[in-house]
Amino acid sequence: MTETAEARLKRMAMRSWRRGTKEMDLVLGPFADAHLAGMDAGTLELYDALLHENDQDLLPWVLGQVQPPDRFAPLIGRIGVFARERLGRG
Q1: Residue 5 contacts by C-beta under 8 Å, 6 or more apart in sequence?
Q2: DSSP string spanning 33-66?
Q3: Contact predicate 36/9, CB 8 Å
Q4: Does the structure show a pLDDT above 70 at 5?
Q5: What is 5-86's CATH number, 3.50.30.30, 1.10.150.250, 3.90.1700.10, 3.30.1490.100?
Q6: pTM above 0.70, yes or no
């Protein structure tokens, strides 16, 4: 059975909030809540792929400590800006 659009968004939101590390929960959870519903199909595909990456890789990408893979760079940039603005460090 194919996943409905609503079920997909719920799955992705839950996966954003339940990463495995609290730091990534606090970065991706609020980002997902604010942006998932407004993402186009291509960005949703990319974000879904990003959710399969390890937190140990994601956090340095978001913090700007390590360059993310090219395909994720624009999305990681958006996530980083969102996180910094949310924390008042924008």
Answers
A1: none
A2: HHHGGG--HHHHHHHHHHTTS-HHHHHHHHHTSS
A3: yes
A4: yes
A5: 1.10.150.250
A6: yes
